[in-house]
UniProtKB/TrEMBL annotation:
Protein name, entry field: F-box domain-containing protein
The organism's place on the tree of life at top rank: Eukaryota
F-box domain location: 2-48
Gene3D superfamilies hit by this protein: 1.20.1280.50
């Protein structure tokens, strides 16, 4: 009796399997022990991810992950959308351990790299979980356990990225720590700033040797990741005052950079909001008016060419004015923009045709990210090949 390997050479089997989606590969692990060992092997996992990230395959294998509130129950759910067609592939409850959490607590998508998604549970003392939506594997990060002499540390925000030097996945946590001897005061209380990093390869937290600049994080939604740099919308303090900008963390060198926002289109007597996304692998800034009494908003899009250099901000284009739009949610191809309107519907604005399409998604959209499905495991990350742009 012939085995599969006797009929087809292993190299050919591998080339065929590389074209298959993760859901099929998970089923094919049951074919035989040799296939299970092959698909579970780190070498095949790396090859499969790199195959999905090639220029010709990237959009075909990419997905949008949309977190939304169901209209009927107000529960959090995740929907997967095919990148090219925007077809809804599936809708599921939030992964364990977030299933059944109180409705008033927010779940935020931090970022996604190589098919791994980082979520934080905004419930005072932030809980963090890593999740692979394709394999449904989850990993709840342990509490830090790092003590400070002052004994009082508050988590301000988190980030998730990839270290190209060590081929490892990292979660960075920004901390505000009470310090009775500090000269900097908030409401007559002294603080200093620190950061901790969790490495997937070691499964533990450690402190970052470089100190974090003084800052105020604007909002946990306004953060993004690209090319090994995680960035937050923040107000950065200099010697005299705070200035609007972004606070960025280099995942490989573990240093902070600050970048002042560009001049122009940022001042509005009715209030201007700003959100950061990734467009063409660059941190991109979207500013827009946020006056609910007005029906029209204009959206101004900028891209940052070099971290830490204010002059490298480049204004790309302006969208609008548009009526009844509440906020942007991210970019699609050809610089199209996902929007949420005042009724909580998901829209797509085609900037070339200047046309708005209702995507008919059932639920109030909260956040969207792109990701490429992968077999990457949450058991460890230090033996991974060099990749990490998705």
């Amino acid at each position: 009796m012939f085995t599969t390997n006797e009929v087809l050479p292993e190299d050919l089997i591998i080339q065929i399997l590389l074209w298959l989606p993760v859901v099929s590969l998970l089923r094919f692990k049951c074919v035989c022990k040799s296939w299970c060992a092959l698909i579970n092997g780190q070498n095949f996992i790396n090859k499969h991810l790199l195959h999905n990230q090639t220029t010709s395959n990237k959009n075909r294998n990419a997905r949008f992950l949309l977190i939304q509130r169901q209209k009927s129950s107000n529960d959090h759910v995740f929907s997967k959308l095919q990148y090219e067609s925007l077809e809804i592939l599936s809708t599921q409850a939030v992964p364990s351990p977030y299933f059944g959490i109180p409705k008033h607590i927010e779940i935020n998508i931090v970022s996604s790299i190589n098919g791994l998604v980082c979520l934080d549970l905004n419930a005072g003392n932030t809980d963090i979980v890593l999740w692979n939506p394709a394999t449904n594997e989850t990993k709840v990060l342990p509490k830090s356990g790092i003590s400070y002499p002052q004994g009082r540390a508050l988590t301000r925000d988190v980030g998730f990225g990839f270290d190209f030097k060590t081929n490892d996945y990292k979660v960075v946590k920004l901390l505000e720590i009470f310090d009775p001897d500090s000269e900097y005061c908030i409401d007559d209380i002294n603080y200093f700033y620190a950061a901790e990093v969790y490495c997937l390869s070691t499964g533990s937290w450690r402190t970052v040797s470089t100190s974090a600049p003084r800052y105020f994080i604007d909002c946990c939604y306004y953060r993004t990741y690209t090319k090994g740099m995680f960035s937050w919308s923040a107000s950065i303090r200099d010697d005299l005052d705070f200035f609007p900008g972004i606070l960025s963390f280099d995942m490989s060198n573990e240093v902070f950079l600050t970048t002042t926002l560009p001049d122009g289109d940022l001042e509005d007597p009715n209030g201007t909001w700003r959100i950061f996304f990734v467009l063409n692998e660059l941190v991109s800034l979207v500013t827009f008016g946020k006056d609910r009494e007005r029906l029209e908003n204009c959206f101004y899009i900028w891209s940052l060419l070099e971290f830490g250099v204010k002059e490298s901000w480049t204004k790309l284009f302006t969208i609008g004015p548009l009526m009844g739009i509440e906020k942007p949610l991210g970019f699609w191809k050809n610089e199209s923009l996902f929007l949420r309107n005042n009724e909580g519907q998901l829209l797509l604005y085609d900037s070339l045709a200047q046309k708005i399409t209702n995507l008919q998604v059932d639920g109030r959209p909260m956040q969207m990210i792109t990701y490429v499905e992968s077999l990457i495991s949450l058991k460890g990350g230090n033996d991974l090949e060099e990749h990490g742009n998705s």
